[in-house]
Amino acid sequence: MNYYNYLPTRNFQIYQIFASNTNLGKTIISTGLLRSSILKTSKSLINKINNKNNNKNNKDNKNKKNENKINYYKNIYYLKPIQTGYPKDDDTNFVKIFTINNNDDYYNVDDNFEKNDNKINIKFNSLYKYKKPVSPHLAINKNFIPNDEIVLNKIKSYISKCYNESLINGGRLFLETAGGVSSPIMSGTIQSEFYRVLRLPTILVGDSNLGGISTTLSSYESLLLRGYDIPIIILFNNENYKNHLFIEKYFNENQNSSIIKPKIFDIQLPPKKDEYNDLVNMKNYFQSNDENFNHVTDELEEWYENKFNRLDKMEEKAKEIVWWPFTQHGIVDKVNVVDSAYKDLLITYNNNSNNSNDSNNSNDSNNSNDSHNSNNSNTSDIDTPSLNEVFDGSASWWTQGLGHGNSKLTLTASYASGRYGHVLFPESINEPSLSLSESLLDGVGKNWANRVFYSDNGSTAMEVALKMALIKQSDDVELSVLGLEGSYHGDTIGVMNACGPNIYNEKVSWYSPKGIWFKPPQILMKDNKYRINNIPKTINNNFDGFDSLTEIFNENRVEKDPLSYHYKQSIENQLHHYTNQGYKFGTLIIEPIVMGAGGMIFVDPLYQKQLIKSVRSILNIPIIFDEVFTGFWRLGKQTGAEFLKINPDIAAYAKLLTGGLCPLAVTLSTEEIFKKFLGNTKVEALLHGHSYTAHPIGCLVANTSINEYPNLKWIKGNENEIDKSFSLWDKNFQKQISCLPKVKGVFSLGTLLSIELNDIDGGGYASNIAKIFNEKLSNLERKSIDDFGIKTRPLGNVIYIMSSLISDVKSLRNIEQKIFDCLNK
User: Fold this and answer.
1) Is the pTM of this model over 0.85?
2) What 3-state class would DSSP assign to 335?
3) 784: closest CA among 313, 268, 362?
4) If 0-12 CB within 10 Å is exposed, 13-18 middle and 19+ buried, where does residue 621 land?
5) Strand (E) positions, 471-616?
6) CA 722, CA 402: separation in Å to the nearest integer?
7) Which member of 32, 233, 260, 287 has the lowest number of beta carbons within 10 Å of its beta carbon?
8) Which of residues 284, 302, 331 is at a domain's end?
9) Using CA atoms, how far apart are residues 172 and 162, in angstroms rounded to an integer?
């Protein structure tokens, strides 16, 4: 069994070594750590051999069961991905010279590995070598700059190979970076960004020179802001400055209880270079410091043990103390333990490592890494992958825009936090909240909105919208709302009452529906044609469907489509019917184009257009657009309103507002709505708010996010396609699955792919059929080094996959193939 894995496990420890600057001794530290690992393993192997010999002479043989549980790492690796100044500077060769004792019988070096022996297997490797002794971005031939993805996959593949060699007897790999924390690689990407996808435990080599306190602490914070764990900081003991003492004191006095404090180690300064005695001097240096490096590796081992012990306990502990939203705890089986996240991927922990369905495994017998398959060891002894990369298929509940761990947003949040913390908002203003207000009115609110009201999430933003609209229409008469059947606007009581009866409110005793909800026509592609459900049979019989989304959104449908007249007549008849019965309506609330939580219902835009026009013509009441889900390019346009080419009077936005980093919501309104609340008494004002209204962190992050979105390639490339819809998902793939018998229908817009499955029990939110499919999807094997699992969250009988706005095409095509394979079984 071969595994595509390049992430640490309990018994395959990986460390990356960064430095605060260049020429600070990373390679010396790497050498010392390798020597320590080898020395410890040598002692363990000797003990193992002695135990075996003792067991042969021991009739009771009491220790036989435990002989394989001795803690050692038989496979030791050193990896220098990028080397400049080669061959004069050759860190790999340096480490090899001062790590290996050629007279020692316990070593296999490089590829001279022997199976089932009692020797330590040691490998040294460098992947990219350049002659010029300068930064990699300067050393490279400008005509042959390798793509970051290619470089990363080469590193991943090498680590994976080492991991597979270490399945039985464990291993330890040290990855040494080049230059400093923010030094660039060949493409110009800085190292702390480039290596972030691996998020390996980091050893930071500090600067023991004058000014080194500043560079060390700055480097530490730079790594910390990008989400790295830094268990160790090592400095040379420079008696002139003693930087290590100050840094240790600094961390003791500024300890953060939420972040593991790095342990500070000082190592003796190496001898000055001596042309004639350098080799001997350095060998003596390492021998005299072996015990010091042993203390460092002891600390690293303890850190690893603590990390995985905590991960082991998180699932059961969460079940004991956490109350999850929208979750029936009585049927929770597997808990998704997330160790970290980056871009589109979650790194999840699986403490049942020996599961034969592990998505990291591959049965490819042609893979060159399959060397351990001949080993007859029990599979329970194999250290299978425990940290797994999975695609965040729900875009972390519809919020992800610029990807997890986006350093630009992280730095923005840090700046706002450092400058403001949180400040009172009523009758106050600050730069983040003012700038965001200006950006919103020039963006999603352009040509219609004049005011921005801040709140904390989508539900409260809609609660505010509801108050605005209903008070605008009447101060003292109880009004009803108009909406669409299947709508959902949140879980606060006002917006709950603004929705028809559904699974979300049926158990809430104080729920009191206050409105009328029309059944909308739903569009789905089936058998290569977009068809409309919920329209009269007399019309449907003469309707052959649409061939493309462009046809569906065509403006000419208002005048030429027979459905246009039918929709108009049906809506107006119902409006007259209910007003004649005495209903007084205060607002129309719709989710433009797609109703999310109701089951990803793609509503015929022609119907919504006619509904809005009729309501404005007959009732003249405010129109609220719930754009909490649809706003900020989720569906391929800046807003859902752009599809309809109709402006609301009030609109709510959240989710993608902050790029997926932190909670914030806004409700935009026209000046006419705002003026209703002007007066001379407090009671006339809009009395709604919360303590963290317009918090500067969220406002500045939101402003950064919404200014980043238009610069994304797929958005920029489609900015002139006013009449065309756009999707990141492949059209041919959608046509393929629309023909499958299990599929009732499919559609995609922007980042959203929605697949409705046939369910003999009728479907709906209570259905479990999509959950069963999702389980199949999550158990698919990884087929390459850049493959991943998929984590989704079903909506009854609806499977939806939502990408971020930065998802790459290759990943989406991969997901499509996995979905097709599961549906076609």
Assistant:
1) yes
2) coil
3) 362
4) buried
5) 480-484, 515-518, 522-526, 529-533, 585-590, 594-595, 601-602
6) 24
7) 287
8) 331
9) 9
Domain annotation covers residue 611 = yes
What lies within 8 Å, CB to CB, of 374 at 6+ separation is: 115
State the total domains in the chain.
2
- Among the candidates 661, 694, 716, a domain finishes at 716
Burial tier of 87 (Cβ tally within 10 Å: 0-12, 13-18, 19+): exposed
Contact 216, 20 (CB under 8 A): yes
| Cα-only R_g, the chain | 31
Domain residues for 114?
Answer: 2-331
Same domain flag for 325 and 240: yes
Q: How far apart are CA 809 and CA 825, in angstroms?
A: 25
**Tokens 């340096």, residue?**
94
Residues 297 and 423 in one domain: no
**Proportion of the chain above pLDDT 70, given as a percent:** 90
| Edge-to-edge strands, sheet with 387-392 | 337-342, 345-349, 387-392, 789-791
Report residue 145 as tokens: 């700059």
Q: Say which CATH number the domain at 663 has.
A: 3.40.640.10
Whether residue 742 has pLDDT greater than 70? yes
pLDDT level of residue 369 (50, 70, 90 thresholds): very low
Strand partners, 690: none
Helix-strand-coil split of the chain, %, nearest 5: 40, 20, 45
Q: Which residues contact 558 (CB under 8 A, 6 or more apart)?
A: 564, 606, 609, 610
- Domain annotation covers residue 271: yes
Same domain? For 50 and 186 the reply is yes
Residue entry with tokens 């101060």: 475
Determine contact, residues 394/791, Cβ cutoff 8 Å. yes
Cα angle for residues 33, 204, 244 (degrees, 5° grid):
95
Q: What is the pLDDT of residues 231-258, one digit of tens each?
A: 999 999 999 999 999 999 999 999 888 8
The pair of three-digit structure tokens given for residue 75, joined into one six-digit string: 């496979």
For 789-804, letters b (16+ CB in 10 Å) and e give: bbbbbbbbbbbbbbbb
Do 41 and 74 form a contact (C-beta atoms < 8 A)?
yes
CA dist., res. 340 & res. 334, Å (int)? 18
Phi and psi dihedrals of 755, rounded to 5?
-125, 120
State the CB neighbour count (10 A cutoff) for residue 416: 23
CATH number for the domain spanning 103: value is: 3.40.50.300
The secondary structure of residue 110, as a DSSP letter, is T
Q: Which residue has 């309104």 as its token pair?
A: 669
| Amino acid in position 188 | G
State whether the Cα torsion 527-530-532-533 is positive or negative: positive
Question: Cα–Cα distance between 409 and 700 in angstroms, integer?
Answer: 9
Counted residue by residue, the chain has a size of: 825
CA distance 591 to 603: 9
Q: Are residues 302 and 417 in the same domain?
A: no
Q: Tens digit of pLDDT for each residue in 16-46?
A: 999 999 999 999 999 999 999 999 988 777 6
Look up residue 464 and give its two tokens: 């505010």
Whether 769 is covered by a domain: the verdict is no
Closest-CA residue to 510 (of 534, 526, 494): 494
* Beta-carbon contacts of residue 420 (< 8 Å; ≥ 6 apart): 430, 432, 696, 697
The gap from C-alpha 398 to its chain's centroid, in whole angstroms, comes to: 11
The residue assigned the tokens 């761990």 is 405
Neighbouring C-alpha atoms within 13 Å toward the C-beta of 58? 11
pLDDT digits 0-9 by tens, 794-818: 888 999 999 999 999 999 999 999 9
The yes-or-no verdict on residue 726 having pLDDT over 90 is no
CB 358 within 8 A of CB 385: yes
